[in-house]
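Progress report, Aim 2. The chain analyzed during this reporting quarter is listed below.
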Amino acid sequence: MAKSRNNRYRIRVLERAIRLLYALVDGEPRNLTQIAADIELSNPTTFRLLATLEEYRFVQRSPDSSHFRLGPACLELARAYLESIDVRQAAMPILEELREHTQETVHLAVLDQMRVFYLEKLPGFHSLGLMSSSVGSYIPAYCTGLGKATPGARAG
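Predicted structure tokens for the chain:
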């Protein structure tokens, strides 16, 4: 998560809400106390953030009402972001041709702060399902073939 160098324009409550969302990004439901500890805020402050984010569907409560996870509004933003990336539309015919030629899974990704961010994935025709990549996910560059093939990802 990148931080701005100029504190003058930052909004503290917004930063707290963003930290809260990032605390849930791994998909594991957490209760109020766990989230508050993760983002280093008090339980009442964290509860108010969660209540607001829940109203706007950025977080949702589990059926037992004591755990929270990311909500569907996050997916809506992710979908809008992915659809707005022109490179995806431009690359799709090439990805389809490459998959047709190799019969293998093909990916479109970008390098972001030494992490591979998957923009598109077309499964191969005889895929075994061994790859854990998924559109919208980040994986450290050194853990992926794409990251190793990217000139900016080389160490040293």
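The chain has two domains: 7-72, 85-153. The first strand starts at residue 30 and ends at 31. These observations will guide the mutagenesis work planned for the next reporting period.
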